[in-house]
Amino acid sequence: MDLALRRAEAVRALRLSDEQLAAECVEEFFIASGPGGQHRNKTETGVRLTHPPTELSVTATERRSQAVNRSEALERLREGLRELSFVPKKRRPTKPSRRAKERRLQAKKHKGEKKAIRRERW
Predict the structure, then answer these.
(1) What is the mean pLDDT of each run of 10 residues along the chain (122 residues)?
(2) Which residue range(s) make up the domain with 76?
(3) Assigned domain for 18 exists
(4) pTM for the model
(5) Do 42 and 31 contact (CB within 8 A), yes or no?
């Protein structure tokens, strides 16, 4: 999918409420491994949200509660949409002015002259 189209979809999705955004997403629940005992290892508390228009997918598995993980995943999805909607400024190459070049060369020449005087002493 084209980046410009994904960016436009991300901007549109950011304007939606949490309920509308969640309705647009595909929700998957899975068993999240790790510390937390039997409650975590035998129940599907992990949440994966996939936003098809932008092809963005996030997961949350930190908590033992599916509801808390769902809200955490939604926050991460919004953060990902913000990053996707950011348009960097175009950078234009610049070159130093003639006076800046002259100053830099003059400083180098002055430094070289100081070093030459030091060499003459020894």
Answers:
(1) 88 93 93 75 88 94 89 95 92 94 97 91 68
(2) 3-85
(3) yes
(4) 0.71
(5) yes
